[in-house]
Amino acid sequence: MGETRVKGQVKVLDGNRAAAWGVFLSRPDVVASFPITPQTPLLEALYRFKGDGLLDAEMAEPEGENSALSILIGASAAGGRTFTATSSQGLSFMYDAYLFTSGNRLPIVMVIAMREQVGPHGVVAGQQDAVLVKDGGWIQIYTESCQEILDSIIMAYRLAEDPEILLPVNVCYEGFYLSYHSQRVEIPEQEDVDRFLSPLQNSRRLKLCLEEPMTFSSYTIPGELYTEYRFKHCAAHQRAKGKLDQIDREFSIMFGRSYGGQIEEYETSDADVVIVTMGCSSGTAKGVIDKKRAEGLKVGLVKIRMFRPCPNERLVKALSGKKAIGVIDRSVCFGWNCGHNFVELKALLSDIQAPAPLMLDFIAGLGGSDITSQHVERVIDATFAAAQGKPYQTVTWLSLE
Amino acid sequence: MQFRSKFEGPWATPEPMLVIKTGAWRFQRPVTKVGKCRQCGWCYIFCPTGCIEEKGTYFSANLDFCKGCGICAKICPGNAIKIIREEE
Question: Which residues of A touch B7 (CB under 8 A)?
Answer without folding.
Answer: 206
